[in-house]
Amino acid sequence: MIDTHRLMIFRSVVATGSVSGAASTLGYTSSAVSQHVSALQRETGLSLVEKSGRGIVPTPAGRVLADAATKLMQQVDELTATVEDLRAGTTDRVVLSGFSSAVTAWMPDVVAALTTEFPATRVMVRIEEDIDAVRDTRPDVAIVVGLDRPATVAGYCIHELLTEPYVAVLNTNHELAGRLSIDMVELAAHRWIDSDTYEGPCRQNMLNACAAAGFTPTFIVETSDYPAALRFVARDVGLTVIPRLGAADLPAGTVAVPLANPTPQRSIFLYVKDSRANDPAITRTGELLSELAGQPRGPGSTTSPSTRLT
């Protein structure tokens, strides 16, 4: 059996890049950390780290083990939370997940309602960006973006929650800022801020619309999230194209304008674990999310009804 405590220490070594860094973080001596890493290598029969300058780096096998250790530690944390719930008399726990803009826009209201209506239920929320996270972490309810039809996940039923358009976000000084709508092709000659370097469906939907309009955007700044991209737009560095939900809270000096010919869109789906589908708290979560998804937010506000996919 692999010692989970040693896995935790090894994960810290990988995260900090050194034995001394892990020792400082965990409150151990450097020699104790080194002994645990050496023991873990003996237990696994693998070379897990190698020297790099004054620090160490994980070997390919070490990186795989560190990633697996992170997932295991999450499961241990969840088990610990379950034990604490049982001790406290909490009867149930609901795990919700979703991509960043959906969690930011919707989950505070959902969690506030659930904790009021189901006070004996603990609600946990995670920000997870793709369908693989649903397969790996198995939340009770997940909000996921899909291309066309959603990917199936064993043990989950799928509901279409919303189809929403993308908008162009521009500095108020931009020559197109006063328009009621903008054709995609009109953006071809301008500087772009990439708002999502992750190669997922949200970005692909935008790139597909650009391709349909006959161009590839010229990105002068690459960022990994919408708020960062919006800050560059506010400084008049360039424009960005993001889903309407991501433009719900614009910084001063920016404006969102609907897009046409074509209008990029993304479909948002709700994944509900089959084993929890009849749980009142889970049912209420679906109702709350459907209500919130149906509320217009920002320019070009149109919504599609929440329907069960067959």
Automatic annotation (TrEMBL):
<keyword id="KW-0010">Activator</keyword>
<dbReference type="InterPro" id="IPR036388">
    <property type="entry name" value="WH-like_DNA-bd_sf"/>
</dbReference>
<dbReference type="Pfam" id="PF03466">
    <property type="entry name" value="LysR_substrate"/>
</dbReference>
<dbReference type="InterPro" id="IPR005119">
    <property type="entry name" value="LysR_subst-bd"/>
</dbReference>
<dbReference type="InterPro" id="IPR000847">
    <property type="entry name" value="LysR_HTH_N"/>
</dbReference>
<keyword id="KW-0805">Transcription regulation</keyword>
<keyword id="KW-0804">Transcription</keyword>
<dbReference type="GO" id="GO:0003700">
    <property type="term" value="F:DNA-binding transcription factor activity"/>
</dbReference>
<dbReference type="GO" id="GO:0003677">
    <property type="term" value="F:DNA binding"/>
</dbReference>
<feature type="domain" description="HTH lysR-type">
    <location>
        <begin position="2"/>
        <end position="59"/>
    </location>
</feature>
<protein>
    <submittedName>
        <fullName>LysR family transcriptional regulator</fullName>
    </submittedName>
</protein>
<feature type="compositionally biased region" description="Polar residues">
    <location>
        <begin position="300"/>
        <end position="310"/>
    </location>
</feature>
<dbReference type="Pfam" id="PF00126">
    <property type="entry name" value="HTH_1"/>
</dbReference>
<comment type="similarity">
    <text>Belongs to the LysR transcriptional regulatory family.</text>
</comment>
<feature type="region of interest" description="Disordered">
    <location>
        <begin position="288"/>
        <end position="310"/>
    </location>
</feature>
<dbReference type="GO" id="GO:0032993">
    <property type="term" value="C:protein-DNA complex"/>
</dbReference>
<dbReference type="InterPro" id="IPR036390">
    <property type="entry name" value="WH_DNA-bd_sf"/>
</dbReference>
<keyword id="KW-0238">DNA-binding</keyword>
